[in-house]
Amino acid sequence: MGEVFRNLDWSVLGNIALSIIPALICVILHEISHGVVAWWLGDPTAKSAGRLSLNPLRHLDVVGLLFMATVGFGWAKPVPIDPRYFKNPKRGMALTALAGPVTNLLITVVMLFVYGLIIGFFGFGGAVAAFFATTALTTAYLSLSLAVFNLIPIPPMDGSKVLFSLASDETYFKLMRYERFGTILILILAVSGKLWGPLGSVTQKLFNAFLIIAQKGFELARQIV
Fold it and tell me: Is 31 a catalytic site residue?
């Protein structure tokens, strides 16, 4: 057993541990945003189920969190939504679905700006500043990756609900019946490794474009200093 521990790559385990908090932030706020928008549109299901809470235990899916912390893409427990409460069920589902990725994009913007501010004010000279800067940058990247992952137009992902809302009501609800098959397809693509490469490439290109926000935060900090 001692030999096993000696051969462990502790740097990898350390990186995973440092990614847990950013991953929790990303997936919890993603799911809460679904519930909040559904509530605004008249559906109290998520609120009644306690899913508007910041308590991570109400949202946590252990496997999804580990995926998020290790490969950058993951999930939480889906927030219960009842479209029968919506005046326009199809539009309500689309807006509720879109809330998650939009929230993740906002998190990315805020965290990159915070990262720029930290570097501008403190640099990487101290352990505390380096920790918070790294946490902000990791949160920004994971949040963007979660937005990209959820915009896949395959049921039950958020992107499918937004895309299918353009179809007729009859076609929309027929397509939604096949959600379970979409889940199986996504799992097959994930296990085979054919999903992470393309998603990672798209996420990295978008992240590089978003880095201009960190530059703005850095410039503001330098002006103040």
Answer: yes
